[in-house]
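One-letter codes give the sequence; each number marks local geometry. A record appears below:


***
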Amino acid sequence: MRAFFLAGGLAAVTAFATIAPPAHVHVERTTWDSVYTAAQSARGDTLYRQGCAKCHGAALEGTLNDGGPLTGAMFLGNWSGLGMDQLFEKAYTTMPSDKPKSLPRKDYADILAYVLARNQFPSGATALPDSMELLREIKIVAGK
């Protein structure tokens, strides 16, 4: 009888171990995991209209001469599989084209939250960070 309880307990522990990942295993987040807030996206909308729309278009569709699209298959195809840190770095170091790095890092995060919203990624309870280390943990994934 004691062997039965021991075997049953071992089976329960084994089953739990296969369900819950060990504490040291990193679970990757994606843009589908609600990585920005609606309020952050609203701030980003305002900032986008003030400084980004002139090159990327009012609807983020891109313009012929200046900026590429920030929504749709072409945009997502270029960034899918990469980390949000890479998109943030591109925006921070090259935009606006006449004054890169001219905004606070928080503002770039807000603008990227707006870009995520316009690409139909869900919002959540936690704001998109402006830390490269934290952004590196979020993978851009075009489709579910």
The domain at 27-139 is CATH 1.10.760.10 (Cytochrome Bc1 Complex; Chain D, domain 2). The two ends are 49 Å apart (CA to CA). Residues 37 and 125 are 6 Å apart (CA to CA).
